[in-house]
Amino acid sequence: MLDELLGRASLKERIAELEDETERLRARYEAETDRRAEATTARQDAEKRVNRLEDRIAQLEGELERVDADEDDSLAFRRRETLRGGRLADVLDRLRSVRTGPEGAVTTVVESGADEFAPDDELAAALGDREALVDAAAPCLLCVDDAGLVSAALDPPVFPDEGDVPAGWTDRFALDREWFLPTGRYALAVVRADLFAVGVYEGDDRIEYRGFESDVKGSHSKGGFSQARFERIRDDQIDAHLERCRETLADVYDDAEIDRLFLTGQRGVIETLADETAVEPAATAAVDATGDPKSALEDAYGTFWTTTLFVL
């Protein structure tokens, strides 16, 4: 009665309500704390597992890199050599001297730019895992025997057509000397946009020479002309130079009995001259021949009559 008169009853009820609310909040806090502790533990466990997995991934990647490196090493050419002159003749003679059973040796033309080298079953078995190296050597002549003693590729200066090489397996390698070495009477020319030289040869010996340089502007205007006009003038000068080259080649052919013509020099200029020359070149090659016409011809000659040997 006294509590009601003094207002204590309502205060006690409010205190009781607050105490109940406090207990509920304390219980919720403790439950949330437990959940957070469990979540922290779970997160820590997950982080440990992630770390273990990352370590395992790094270990496996390292093993994969070592395997790839071992494979790359195992598939490297056993030997690669640039051959010319007497050394080229010696190696060629050794390969040409090989004799096998009736179907123990094969010579295959592997073209450049082919999607993939696709040997027959017998050749694939002879090459084994080294088959992948053939694409790296292309274009080439591939020589393989059935005993595994010979497995080599060569890139001759004069690349034969497939019809020039016997199809299938025979008792020897089909390697014509004229694909690799200077033979007979032939002409070899070097041409740039402003230079031309041609020699007539008997084997290794040059028996005739003609050469000249033309006044052709550089590739960029240095003032005084618009670039378009400058390029037209330069193109006209190059056309005149190439016309003189064609006339010189025609004169050489009229004066000498020539079996074959080889064109070397600046790639785009070679192609233009080859397309417009009456005599079809037996082979062309882009070479970096510098100096005056005679020096450029000597450089081109040495570069052209070079073969790379790949031992698979």
Automatic annotation (TrEMBL):
Keyword annotations: Coiled coil
Keyword Coiled coil annotated: yes
Actinobacteria/chloroflexi VLRF1 release factor domain mapped to chain residues: 185-308
Coiled-coil boundaries: 8-70
Pfam family, one: acVLRF1
UniProt-listed InterPro entries: eFR1_2_sf, VLRF1
UniProt keyword Aminoacyl-tRNA synthetase, yes or no: no
Protein name, UniProt field: Actinobacteria/chloroflexi VLRF1 release factor domain-containing protein
